[in-house]
């Protein structure tokens, strides 16, 4: 994009290759890592129980970090690698973290009874205020992946006062057309459910070349997530409608996300087109677009260091953690970026980021970053 600089991080070895992927196959090792200080809750909502895992307690007037996983996963399979990454501890010590599992997707979930109606994507979003109220959060910063990103975007559209910021990884704002729907139905007849889900998580090139990571997730999706419950979630996600958003000024009474948003996608991810389109529909003054090189379909798993740095910068843009170390970004940026100071006593305003090839004189919040 014109006026935007290409930013590159120093080389980082992707995670979950070889030995690391072998360790992932051991569910006791993978799913139990650093879980000792997390507390589990089952929260009643208008559309059934939600399994939630939380660490810490609300800190002053700061929002909670609330996560929502992709279809085929749960909070552990989706976020353990990211939140257990060493550099993330600098962030999590400042915020309470709340992981939400979609109904019936948590480890050890009982199978839903015959005839159970899985909540729609809109209803999944409408379950989240019960979580916010249960823990007394004033507002949240959401991190969602794939289906979870769609749910959090819906949540922010319906309940904008509860959402201060969003990190949306691999979001697809579009519902499936008839051709896509037919292809999905055909795939379900010729492939196992884990393999069908894998084609949603990874592009074909990654399925072929990244065999250790893919095999690890194939095993975990098949063994850890209840398959009948997963099928219901998968069916509901594939029947979703278009996310009702438009860039302000493009159509009368356009709906958009009012909070700061960071869109993230790997350069070899199936969701790349959808994320690019979502970026075109959001307010450019509050949106950051982060395209991550060499991260594939699960950037939070394969490149947690780079994503952590970007998340720190995103938080700084909202006025939090002004003194957080920014080693990779600091070395890679060729121009200064402004940030607001931390304000614990009141809800901070999104600050202005300045970045362009002409320097600090021009303001552009939409940054296309290759890292």
Low-confidence stretches: 1-35, 330-364
CATH topology assignment: Rossmann fold
Biggest sheet strand line-up: 1-2-4-3-5-6-7-8-9
The global form is globular
Distance between the termini: 15 Å
Query: SSE string, helix = H, strand = E?
Result: HHEEEHHEHHEHEHHHHHEHEHHHE
Q: Roughly what is the average pLDDT, rounded to an integer?
A: 81
C-alpha-based Rg, rounded:
20 Å
**What is the CATH class designation?**
Alpha Beta
Beta-strand content: 5-15%
Total of domains: 1
Record field, number of beta strands? 9
CATH superfamily name? Alpha/Beta hydrolase fold, catalytic domain
CATH architectural arrangement: 3-Layer(aba) Sandwich
Q: Major sheet, described briefly?
A: 9 strands, mixed
| Helix segment tally | 16
Main structural class: alpha/beta
In percent, how helical is the residue content? 25-40%
What does this protein structure show overall?
- 38% of the residues lie in helices and 14% in strands.
- By secondary structure, it is of the alpha/beta class.
- The chain has one domain (38-320): Alpha/Beta hydrolase fold, catalytic domain (Rossmann fold, 3-Layer(aba) Sandwich).
- It has a 9-stranded mixed β-sheet, sandwiched between helices.
- β1 and β2 form a beta hairpin.
- The radius of gyration is 20 Å and the shape is globular.
- Residues 1-35 and 330-364 have low confidence and may be disordered.
């Amino acid at each position: 994009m014109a006026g935007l600089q290409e930013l590159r991080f120093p080389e980082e070895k992707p995670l979950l290759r070889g030995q690391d992927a072998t360790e992932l196959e051991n569910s006791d090792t993978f799913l139990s890592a650093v879980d000792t200080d997390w507390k589990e809750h089952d929260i009643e909502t208008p559309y059934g129980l939600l399994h939630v895992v939380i660490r810490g307690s609300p800190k002053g007037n700061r929002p909670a970090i609330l996560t929502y996983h992709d279809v085929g996963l749960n909070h552990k399979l989706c976020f353990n690698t990211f939140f257990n990454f060493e550099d993330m501890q600098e962030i999590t010590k400042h915020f309470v973290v709340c992981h939400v599992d979609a109904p019936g997707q948590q480890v050890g979930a009982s199978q839903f009874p015959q005839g159970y109606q899985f909540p729609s994507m809109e209803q999944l979003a409408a379950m989240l205020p019960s979580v916010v109220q249960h823990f007394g959060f004033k507002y949240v910063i959401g991190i969602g992946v794939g289906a979870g990103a769609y749910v959090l975007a819906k949540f922010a559209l319906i309940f904008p006062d509860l959402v201060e910021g969003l990190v949306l990884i691999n979001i697809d704002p579009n519902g499936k057309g008839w051709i896509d729907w037919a292809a999905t139905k055909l795939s379900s007849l010729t492939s196992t459910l884990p393999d069908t889900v894998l084609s949603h998580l990874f592009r074909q090139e990654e399925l072929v070349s990244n065999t250790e990571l893919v095999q690890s997730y194939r095993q975990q999706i098949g063994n850890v997530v209840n398959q009948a419950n997963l099928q219901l979630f998968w069916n509901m996600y594939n029947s979703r409608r278009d996310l009702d958003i438009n860039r302000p000024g493009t159509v009368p009474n356009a709906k958009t996300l009012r909070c700061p948003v960071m869109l993230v996608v790997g350069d070899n991810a199936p969701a790349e087109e959808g994320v690019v389109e979502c970026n075109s529909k959001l307010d450019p003054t509050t949106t950051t677009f982060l395209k991550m090189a060499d991260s594939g379909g699960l950037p939070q798993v394969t490149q947690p260091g780079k994503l952590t740095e970007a998340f720190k910068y995103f938080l700084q843009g909202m006025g939090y953690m002004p003194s957080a170390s920014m080693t990779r970004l600091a070395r890679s940026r060729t121009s200064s970026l402004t940030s607001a100071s931390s304000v614990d006593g009141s809800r901070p305003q999104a600050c202005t980021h300045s970045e362009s090839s002409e320097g600090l004189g021009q303001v552009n919040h939409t940054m296309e970053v290759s890292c």
